[in-house]
């Protein structure tokens, strides 16, 4: 009999823990690759709690349970997770390790799945537990899987070659660069665990994770330029084998741990941020010499080559035309009162798909009307879908996966027929001013994303306002919509990537926002490309941003009096570019609407 309530699932897990001799267990949103978005088979936290966000962790003890989320999910977790079963914990104000150090019973055995956690996390949790005389125990089998009766199997969809005409560089060239990196450090091999790193290194794609075109697999890259790919045999096609060539040995996933254990006496690079604890355990047991190094694929993947940059521009232009058609549709239909968050999200996907080149969305569309727009990473469902009511704010954050690029755009619009309140226009314009300040930023070589974050927040700060998410994340090329190592965010909280210098070829989002709980949300997001800036008399190398995203910004929400002359010029110039890029792709009423939407202020 299937368990249909989260209370029953929690009860079943507790009984399983008692059977396994455990006093508690930690359940993250994670997979064997430390992925941000995971396949259905790895959605253990959502199955257990109902929480549908992309980041979070739960701890189950015999008599209490807690769920940990950051500021993006403060509202969402309360909507989706039963507060009578779970206590809500905010990160970084607390952590799983700190909470266990206070709540784990004396002498308790707290289980964890070493294939779902980093080594650093396990060490921190073990230290916190030791202070209470408790221990952290790696399990041989995940107890959630034992009680999840209808758990989906991992995907067996085929891995697909990604053509050089889109990649801009062959897989053999990429392997050779990794081999040079290994040789320069006196290393024998690197363990590549992140799914998008495997995909980029070997120029393969897949459909194993919703919204991210990757194939479940691991790679061992060697100093001689060869590699071992560990992947389910069902996913391997003759076309894939031909694409990989003789220098890549294809082995079943089950051979991965034995291959790690065969590296005795070798110097092996492993990324502590991306490799799970179980990989470290296997290498330690083998007697290999582990060298902690950032995945050698991460930075080259972030530095888009000219072919990838051109592909992004083409994808953004195509995507922008779909966005423009959607925004006109919303402007016409929503004031009538019959459009819902779900129907709007479906219509937007249909506009994207009509071009025939959409492979997938790049993430679940955030379609937030009124108060739902204030939930930063809101995910619409049949239960939560609201009508886009006349005279309200609507926020839509969406993106597409195309073979030549990955898109991510947010627009906030006013649903008429009335005029927006002055306070809403004030908040929107402060967000816009921050967006423009970042888009226009010029900065010297060596500047980190954290040093630019306040550019986008300054006008909100001046009014005593802020937002609880980063300002910008990296974006892949027909890969992950959230890609490291670069990001633009506050430096506090130990967030990965905020110290990474921004370099030409990196693509990031520019997405400041403002959220009025219970009323509305505002976010304006474009993607930008780091490029060199030629400045007369400059002492050193300077960079700036090329804006890649083209779609109208709602002029009805702009308080023109709050804009400086330079800001007004930027917006008018941006809208002139939007019109130039999109108008040739549109016809009839869509084109007429675009011309009006892009009229100068």
From TrEMBL:
GO molecular function (one): metalloaminopeptidase activity
CDD domains for this protein: APP
Xref: InterPro entries: Creatin/AminoP/Spt16_N (IPR029149), Creatinase/aminopeptidase-like (IPR036005), Creatinase_N (IPR000587), Pept_M24 (IPR000994), Pept_M24B (IPR033740), Peptidase_M24_C (IPR032416), X-Pro_aminopeptidase_P (IPR050422)
GO cellular component: cytoplasm
Creatinase N-terminal domain residues: 9-141
A Pfam family annotated for this UniProt entry: Peptidase_M24_C
Domain Peptidase M24 per the UniProt entry, residue ranges: 312-531
Domain named Peptidase M24 C-terminal: residues: 541-601
Similarity section: Belongs to the peptidase M24B family.
Name listed for the protein in its UniProt record: Peptidase M24
Taxon lineage: Bacteria, Pseudomonadati, Pseudomonadota, Alphaproteobacteria, Sphingomonadales
């Amino acid at each position: 009999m299937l368990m249909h309530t989260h209370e029953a699932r929690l009860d079943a897990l507790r009984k399983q823990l008692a059977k396994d001799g455990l006093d508690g267990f930690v359940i993250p949103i994670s997979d064997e690759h430390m992925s941000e978005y995971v396949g259905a088979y790895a959605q253990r936290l959502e199955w257990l709690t109902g929480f549908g966000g992309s980041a979070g962790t739960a701890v189950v003890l015999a008599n209490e349970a807690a769920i940990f989320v950051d500021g993006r999910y403060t509202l969402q977790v309360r909507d989706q997770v039963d507060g009578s079963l779970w206590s809500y914990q905010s990160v970084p104000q607390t952590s799983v390790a700190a909470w266990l150090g206070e709540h784990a019973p004396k002498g308790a055995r707290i289980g964890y799945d070493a294939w779902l956690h980093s080594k650093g996390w396990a060490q921190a949790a073990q230290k916190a537990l030791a202070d209470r005389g408790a221990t952290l125990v790696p399990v041989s089998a995940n107890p959630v899987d034992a009680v999840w009766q209808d758990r989906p199997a991992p995907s067996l969809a085929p891995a697909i070659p990604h053509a050089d005409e889109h990649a801009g560089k062959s897989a053999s060239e990429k392997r050779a660069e990794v081999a040079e990196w290994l040789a320069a450090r006196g290393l024998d091999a690197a363990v590549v665990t992140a799914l998008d790193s495997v995909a980029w290194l070997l120029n393969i794609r897949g459909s194993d994770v919703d919204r991210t075109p990757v194939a479940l697999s691991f790679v061992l890259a060697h100093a001689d330029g060869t590699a071992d790919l560990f992947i389910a045999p069902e996913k391997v096609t003759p076309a894939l084998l031909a694409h990989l060539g003789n220098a890549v040995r294809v082995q079943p996933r089950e051979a991965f741990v034995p291959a790690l254990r065969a590296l005795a006496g070798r110097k092996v690079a492993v990324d502590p941020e991306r490799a799970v604890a179980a990989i470290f355990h296997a290498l330690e047991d083998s007697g290999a010499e582990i060298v902690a190094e950032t995945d050698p694929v991460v930075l080259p993947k972030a530095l888009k080559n000219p072919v990838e940059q051109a592909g992004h521009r083409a994808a953004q232009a195509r995507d922008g035309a779909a966005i423009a058609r959607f925004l006109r549709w919303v402007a016409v239909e929503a004031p009538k009162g019959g459009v819902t968050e779900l129907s709007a999200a479906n219509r937007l996907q249909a506009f994207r798909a009509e071009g025939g080149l959409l492979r997938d969305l790049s993430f679940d569309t955030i379609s937030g009307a009124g108060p739902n727009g204030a939930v930063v990473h809101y995910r619409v469902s049949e239960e939560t879908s609201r009508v886009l009511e006349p005279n309200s704010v609507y926020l839509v954050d969406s993106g597409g996966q195309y073979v030549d690029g990955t898109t991510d755009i947010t627009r906030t619009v006013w649903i008429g027929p009335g005029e927006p309140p002055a306070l809403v226009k004030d908040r929107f314009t402060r967000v816009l001013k921050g967006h423009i300040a970042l888009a226009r930023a010029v900065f010297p070589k060596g500047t980190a994303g954290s040093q630019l974050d306040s550019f986008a927040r300054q006008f909100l700060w001046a009014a005593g306002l802020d937002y609880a998410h980063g300002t910008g994340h990296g974006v892949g090329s027909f890969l992950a919509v959230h890609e490291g190592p670069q990001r633009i965010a506050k430096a506090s909280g130990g967030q990965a990537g905020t110290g990474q210098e921004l370099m030409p070829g990196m693509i990031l989002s520019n997405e400041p926002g403002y959220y009025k709980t219970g009323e509305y949300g505002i976010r304006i997001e474009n993607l930008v490309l780091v490029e060199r800036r030629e400045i007369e008399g400059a002492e050193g190398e300077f960079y700036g941003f090329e804006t890649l995203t083209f779609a109208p910004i709602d002029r009805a929400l702009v308080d023109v009096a709050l804009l400086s002359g330079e800001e007004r010029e930027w917006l008018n110039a941006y809208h002139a570019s939007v019109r130039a890029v999109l108008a040739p792709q549109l016809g009839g009423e869509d084109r007429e609407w675009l011309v009006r939407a892009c009229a100068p202020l």
